[in-house]
Amino acid sequence: MSEQHTYRVIVRGTWDGLTEDARARLLAEAGEHGMASMRFTEEGSLSYEPAPLKHFSMRYVVVSDAADGEEMAGAIAEDRAEGALRGLGYGFRDLRSTVTDLDTMKVNRKSRSRR
Questions:
Q1: E strand segments, the chain
Q2: How many CB atoms neighbour CB 20 within 10 A?
Q3: Which of 74, 84, 15, 1 is nearest to 50 (CA)?
Q4: Are 62 and 7 within 8 A, CB to CB?
Q5: Short-list 4, 80, 12, 7, CA closest to 43
Q6: How big is the CA angle at 91 (ends 86 and 96), to the nearest 5 degrees?
Q7: How far is residue 27's CA from residue 50's CA, in Å, rounded to a whole number?
Q8: DSSP-derived secondary structure letter, 40
Q9: Which of 1, 47, 65, 69 sits most deeply, having the most CB atoms within 10 A of its CB?
Q10: Matching InterPro entries, A to Z (predicted)?
Q11: pLDDT category, 7, cuts 50, 70, 90?
C-alpha cells in the first residue's frame, strides 16, 4: 500500500462570462463567502470579495499518494473547483493552485526560553 499525504490546496481564478443571474447570486451570497468562510475542506470552500467581483479562491484538502506529489494534488483540486463552479453555473478562467504538503511541512516551534 502506498503512503498517503495530506495537502492543502488554494485554487485561485478569475470570474469570466458570468450571467446576470450568476452575478446577482454571487453578490447576494457574498457575506457567506468572505474571510470568515476560508476553511480547507474536501468539498472546497469558496471565498471572494463582492467589490469588485473579479477574483475568487477555493480551499481544498486533498489526500493522495505521496509518490504522485504536489502537482497531482493541485490537479485534483483544480478539477474539483472546475466541477463545483460549473455545477453552480459560474463562468471562470485562469485557474492556478498553490499546494502545501502537510506531511513534509516543517513546524518551527519557539523554545521554552523564548516564551
A1: 4-15, 45-48, 55-65, 92-101
A2: 7
A3: 15
A4: yes
A5: 80
A6: 85
A7: 6
A8: -
A9: 47
A10: DUF6204 (IPR045778)
A11: very high
Q: Are 40 and 61 in contact (CB under 8 A)?
A: yes
> What Cα–Cα distance (Å) separates residue 21 from each residue in 33, 77, 79, 81, 110?
17, 26, 24, 20, 50
Q: Is the sign of the CA dihedral 45, 56, 102, 112 positive or negative?
A: negative
Place of cell 446576470: 20
Question: Residue type for 112, please?
Answer: R
Q: What is the pLDDT of residues 69-108, one digit of tens each?
A: 899 999 999 999 999 999 999 999 999 999 999 988 776 6
CB under 8 Å to 11, separation ≥6 — which residues?
Answer: 44, 57, 58, 59, 60, 74, 77, 78, 81, 95, 96, 97
Return the amino acid letter for 68.
Answer: D
